[in-house]
Amino acid sequence: MPVITFANTKGGAGKTTAVLLLATELARMGYRVSVLDADPQHWITRWYETSEGLLGKRLNVVPYVTMNSIDRQLAEEKARADFVLIDLPGSRSSLLAKAVGHADYVLIPVQGSAMDAQGGANVIELLQYLEDKANIRIRHSVVLTRVNAMVTTRAMNAVKDLLAARRVHLLPTVIGERAAFRDIFGCGGTLYSMDPRRVSNLDKAQENAHAMAIDVLRQMAIPATASATVLRKVA
To answer: What domain of life (predicted)?
Structure first.
């Protein structure tokens, strides 16, 4: 089953938020999703402990994934899930190389800053190395995160120019700076279980997450209308 690795060697790039949004949206579509939590902050595990059961058995989070355990845990989850998502630490490590090597698709979250762009560039360089030295080509995209639709900064434009110069695919949908994306880690649940009276523009956050998930499916050449059953047969 497809493995999607989320990677940026700089912490705070919005990586775990992107993992959570994609995982819950795919589960809402009917797919069985497993998340391997290799981030030492364990935010996705903490969220899951307060939210378990909201998506039935369609979403599972495996905590405390390490360099020594990832091969076994990945094999176990691939046998039971339609998608396996890997949330990595925001640093350079041998775990990064191994998780990227296992991926069918790598998503690189980047905020509009030079430091985030460099962290993303480190991942892109690793992907290029795998292609040049081992003839392993892994589809990958950058997704811009925490984007304020009302503000276009010089740094954000610089990031876009850098990606264009390197011919790196940029996911059409950006992850906006939205209250729901921040609050979901504190209150648990999903974008569809939150109280719209307490979270501003919740409908826009839901639309944003859905559009991002559709973009990812398209990049993996999986029709957005494909059912989980069809995906299992193809795999």
So the answer is: Bacteria
Which tokens in the block code for residue 80?
């039971």
Q: Which residues pair with 143 in a beta bridge?
A: 109
CB of 1 within 8 A of CB of 83? yes
Q: What is the pLDDT of residue 234?
A: 44
What is the Cβ-side half-sphere exposure of residue 4, based on CA atoms within 13 angstroms?
A: 27
Count of CB atoms within 10 A of residue 196's CB?
A: 13
Are the CB atoms for 235 and 2 separated by under 8 Å?
yes
Predicted confidence at residue 231, as pLDDT, reads 52
* Mean pLDDT, residues 95-114 taken together: 90
Q: What is the mean pLDDT of residues 68-92?
A: 95
Beta strands at 139-144 and 105-110: parallel, antiparallel or unpaired: parallel
Burial of 111 (0-12, 13-18, 19+ CB in 10 A): buried
Q: Is the whole model's pTM more than 0.85, yes or no?
A: yes
- Is the CATH code 3.40.50.300 the one for domain 3-230? yes
